[in-house]
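User: Predict the structure for this protein chain, please.
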Amino acid sequence: MAFTRRRGGKPDTGDADMADMARRFGCTVTIITIVGFGVPDWILGFRGVTIMVERKKPGEELNERQEKFVKEWNGGPLILLETPTQLQAMLTARDLWGWLAARDLRVLMGLVPAVDYRRT
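Assistant: Here is the predicted structure, written as structure tokens:
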């Protein structure tokens, strides 16, 4: 299988502000948009949890490569964040695991019935 070089995506509008907000809450944020190939835009560390984050503008859909990545992902939480309000809700959730499980893209896409991260 041949691989072609692809320039990664551009950071979404507001990424820097949202990343700064996450850092103020104690998160480690690494923006990896440049990777491309459907890989999510951020790796976020929070309360000992590593979270893959796809950043989109409200109403924007995943592209084919992103959907493929979601379908093949066997790791921890993989979520979609569209607004600073969603980020704040995650960072202030009493039950972080429950919040992540309800918003995992694999659940929202119907790939798995539910995710219980508390068992891992």
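The longest helix spans residues 15-24.
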